[in-house]
Specification:
The complex is a heterodimer.
Chain A (H helix, E strand, L loop, with lengths): L2 E4 L3 E3 L5 E8 L7 E7 L5 E7 L6 E3 L7 E6 L4 E6 L8 E9 L12 E5 L3 E5 L2
Parallel strand pairs in A: 2-11
Antiparallel strand pairs in A: 1-3, 3-8, 4-5, 4-9, 5-6, 7-8, 9-10, 9-11
Chain B lengths: L8 E4 L5 E6 L8 E6 L6 E4 L13 E6 L2 E6 L8 E9 L2 E4 L3 E5 L1
Parallel strand pairs in B: 1-9
Antiparallel strand pairs in B: 2-6, 3-4, 3-7, 5-6, 7-8, 7-9
The chains are: A mainly beta, B mainly beta.
Amino acid sequence: QVQLVQSGTEVKKPGASVKVSCKASGYIFTSYDINWVRQAPGQGLEWMGWMNPNSGNTGYAQKFLGRVTMTRTTSISTAYMELRTLRFEDTAVYYCARARGGDDYWSGERYFYMDVWGKGTTVTVSS
Amino acid sequence: SYELTQPPSVSVSPGQTASITCSGDKLGDKYACWYQQKPGQSPVVVMYKDNKRPSGIPERFSGSNSGNTATLTISGTQAMDEATYYCQAWDSITAVFGGGTKLTVL
């Protein structure tokens, strides 16, 4: 079955970096974008960015520019999200999600949606 | 930056119709999708491209999007529908989530 398996819980100190992995199975990894979304405790969903596993192209939310990098290793169908210079407020559950959909032929508007999600990786930033 | 606004909470009685709104500037010109998240679980998409239901999502879920507002409607709401619902749209190549609406079935 189609699934995304994420790496385990991380505890980091402020200023450190974290790299979360997301291993895809049950489908062709390079055929669908991977998005990363985080959720701080008791808060809503926050989109961080996307990566095209085929080309390696990425797009990041303005908020994370310069601090986040999304990469992949296609030979093992795994996507990675690295967040640097961690702050207390980066404490959250980080999700990877497969995106399917496309851009509407007539309007050009995109209708990608996240149809498969990992179970999330808890990252705690604590001194 | 683009923003989507949802009411923090909506209550509905079992068997009744619940409507959850999502507002954004000219949202009707974009495509909206909706996610359901239950406590301790990952989100699940329940609607995409405004009004398309993924396989496995019950027919009681429907969606619309016009003007500045997208709406997720749950007809014949069941206790199992109690969850937080998030709308999401794309502003160019940036995804935006609404703040989430907690649906209480009581």
